[in-house]
Specification:
The structure is a single chain. The protein has 109 residues and is an alpha+beta fold. It has 5 helices and 4 strands, in the order βαβαααββα. The strands form 2 sheets. A two-stranded parallel ribbon has the order 1-2. It has a two-stranded antiparallel sheet with strand order 3-4. Helix 1 packs antiparallel against helix 3 (63-70). It is globular. The relative contact order is 0.14.
Length: 109
Amino acid sequence: MLSIFKSDKKYNIGLVLSGGAARGFAHLGILQALEENNLKPDIISGVSAGAIAGAFYADGYSPIEILQILKGKKMWEYVRLAFKRQGLMKITGLDNILRQYLRANTFEE
């Protein structure tokens, strides 16, 4: 295994959140159920909408707070198609929301 993946930390509960646009935010219900049963993940991984939900949760927001921040927003407020050399999507809207609400600036925080 590559050394970047080695860790002496031991994790009891890991959570992987998938994407799926707005369906990805259904994970908030799972996070709420985990909290109600006093289960807190030690490590969180996610892709697309799951990564957004996971980032907010890891930053200390409750599932209800995350929902309040994100509800009513349309997907195109986060991501727009942009056929440029840098990629197919422009994420300025998502970047603005993350910068506005997330307290942590690094993974270590």
